[in-house]
Amino acid sequence: MRLKNWQLPLALVLFMTGILLMSVLQVLHNQDETPAQEKNHNLVAMIKRQEKELNNLEKSIDTRRVSLDKYQKSLSSGQLETENLQYQLDQLKMLSGVSDVEGPGITVILDDNKKGYEVAKSKNPEANAQDYLIHDKHLLYIVYELRVGGAEAISINKQRITASSDIRCIGTMIQVNTKGLAPPYVINAIGDSSRMASVLENTDSQYNILKMAGYPVQIEKHDKVVIGSYKGSYQFSYAQPKEEQ
Description:
The protein has about 240 residues and is α+β, with helices and mostly antiparallel strands. It folds into 2 domains: about 10-95; about 100-225, Alpha-Beta Plaits (2-Layer Sandwich), CATH 3.30.70.1880. It is built from 5 helices and 8 strands. The strands form 2 sheets. It has a 5-stranded antiparallel beta sheet with strand order 3-2-7-1-8, covered by helices on one side. A 3-stranded antiparallel beta sheet has the order 4-5-6, covered by helices on one side.
């Protein structure tokens, strides 16, 4: 079949028109999708940035957590060390007598043998009154015996006895820690009350010798004895801490 003269040009025109129409539709389609695609791209980029920031934040939190754990351990260690040092300081204070202490113990009361002197004087006017008084040696022996019995703290008439305490007679009085004391002498001691009393009541003890000689002496056991701190001062004129080699 032969084409007519007008059919070929018309076919070409329709073909070109179709191509142009397809091009236009493609352009319009691309223009419609571009904003959505751009929005999607921006959203994906934002999510990726947030994920990266979140990862960085998690790493920072982990780092800070490790630092916090180290700080807490250091603080805990320092606190334990401080508590240990405080405990040692408290022990040294008690040993040196510069802090008040309390605990179970005994009270020993000593007084001059006035009745014994009166009886002796009635028999012999020249009887010596000094032989019926409590002297410094009596207190020294009893303090020693209390320490043998395990006394952890001792006082005489509220004067704390320490390693540097001085006990000596000054006329009719006894001086303890530079303070003159008069009878009766009240000795407080903290420790095992039964053990200390047993040592004092031993046959050869100074306490028992005074008791057998008629001195008015007695021992009292207590669940709680309070002993004040040493009121004197520690001064060293010659002794110095030894330097470490």
